[in-house]
Amino acid sequence: MGELFLFYIIIVNLISFGRMSADKRKSRRRAYRISERELLLLALIGGSAGVWAAMYMFRHKTKHKLFVITVPVLLGFQGLLVFFIYRESFFNFFQLGV
Predict the structure, then answer these.
(1) Where are the domains of the chain?
(2) Which of 17, 69, 70, 95 has the fewest CB atoms below 10 angstroms from its CB?
(3) Cα–Cα distance for residue pair 63/61, rounded to 1 Å
(4) Is 27 helix (H, G, I), strand (E, B) or coil?
(5) Rounded to the nearest 5 degrees, what angle is found at the Cα of 38, between the Cα atoms of 84 and 1?
(6) Of the candidates 18, 40, 15, which has an alpha carbon nearest to the alpha carbon of residue 7?
(7) pLDDT tens for each residue of 14-43
């Protein structure tokens, strides 16, 4: 299960990063945009790291309080989830006897 979950997280974050990048390009061209709802949904289902990275790499949605607050909170929760799923591997890696 752990490998499948890790694969899922990587794919969702790559998609999230790509969608944020595409939305930034569309905003510059004044084209039809990707909804904020979709971008936040991607962050919610595991893509918060991708959304957060794209926010600051492309300076996109960084003035929207909803994104500035919600995405880091989701990232923290998702980081804890990944830690708890892989905690045994984490402790073994650092040779901590827990």
Answers:
(1) 2-93
(2) 95
(3) 5
(4) helix
(5) 30
(6) 15
(7) 999 999 999 999 999 999 999 999 999 999
